[in-house]
Amino acid sequence: EEEAGSPSLVLAIAKYLDRLSADVMYILDGPVHPSGRPTIVYGARGNIGIELTAYGPKFALHSGHYGNWVPNPAMRLAQLLASMKGEDGRVLVAGFYDDITPPTAEEQTMVESVPDDPASLLTLFGIAAPERVGLSLQEALQLPTLNVRGLSSAYVGAEARTIIPDKATAAIDVRLVKETPADRMIKLVRDHIVKQGWHVVEAPPDDATRARHSKIIQIRARSGTEAFRTSPLLPVSKQTVKALTTMFGEPPVQIRTMGGTVPITQFIEALGFPAISIPTVNFDNNQHGENENLRLGHFFRGVTTIAAVLTM
């Protein structure tokens, strides 16, 4: 149930709470820093998935006969998505960045000390520049995101047809930080869509709805996974840093928030003690992709890492 938030395990925590007291929860998830140095991560972003389906004519129409007259749902959906994010990379949904707590002075120093190599990453990924110029990778991870993860409408390639599609669908995800709860962010996105003149439906529209509204969209949002963040100034945080420094002879890379999502917030709340991530796998492990892998060197180093924190 990990990817679904482990609801059964949360119930078990409440039942057996007296057996689960501890000073800290160590999470062995996520990749070590690309530098290969021991890594400590104090938080992870949450995530929500939203699927948008824009409706056009009841069935696909010949684009020659009806182009310029029948609205194209794919074009309208593209325009809606463009309204959500500027060319500078900032999300334009009202309230999207409200209430975000900036890093403390100590945390800002930690963020700036992460030894990222942006030039190498640009080369590895085959891109010319970051989405938001002037924002470092670690600074970008402190903010919520709005990402289009998939688009679908009619046909392309050898199957392409000269039609106006009947519908178009976009799958988006929003990465959350501690100050942006999932339910509120879903509402902000929905409110933005309504402000753009769309009528929201819960199911494919009937004829009466189609007759009343020109821009019709279905919004399907799944319940989100909340973000978490632990203070690096806690005594147990400092003990963890000391333990890894002693074991490996160099200070670990400390990361305030990692980009990926770990469905752990409900456990932190149920157990009542902080969580810290001690990643062990290689950063280029193709996580969630083809040929996901774990280098043997990282596996054995991970054993040593776990031993270091369990014996501190």
How would you describe this protein?
The structure is a single chain. The chain is of the alpha/beta class and 312 residues long. The protein has helices at 7-15, 63-66, 73-84, 105-113, 118-125, 137-140, 182-195, 207-212, 235-248, 265-271, 296-310; strands at 25-27, 39-41, 43-44, 46-55, 61-62, 145-152, 163-164, 167-176, 199-201, 216-221, 228-229, 253-255, 275-277. Helix 8 links the parallel strand 9 (199-201) and strand 10. The longest helix is centred in the C-terminal third of the chain and has 15 residues, at 296-310. The chain is elongated, with a radius of gyration of 23 Å.
Write the layout of secondary structure elements.
Layout: H1 7-15, E1 25-27, E2 39-41, E3 43-44, E4 46-55, E5 61-62, H2 63-66, H3 73-84, H4 105-113, H5 118-125, H6 137-140, E6 145-152, E7 163-164, E8 167-176, H7 182-195, E9 199-201, H8 207-212, E10 216-221, E11 228-229, H9 235-248, E12 253-255, H10 265-271, E13 275-277, H11 296-310
Parallel strand pairs: 1-13, 2-12, 9-10
Antiparallel strand pairs: 3-11, 4-8, 4-10, 5-7, 6-8
Q: How do the helices and strands follow one another from N- to C-terminus?
A: HEEEEEHHHHHEEEHEHEEHEHEH
Beta-strand portion reads 15-25%
Number of H/I helices: 11
Summarize the biggest pleated sheet: 5 strands, mixed
Helix content: 25-40%
**What is the residue-averaged pLDDT?**
92
Query: What structural class results from the helix and strand content?
Result: alpha/beta
Strand order of the largest sheet: 6-8-4-10-9
Radius of gyration: 23 Å
Question: Given the C-alpha coordinates, what overall shape results?
Answer: elongated
N→C terminal distance: 31 Å
Q: Give me the count of strands.
A: 13
Low-confidence runs (pLDDT<50, min 5 residues)? none
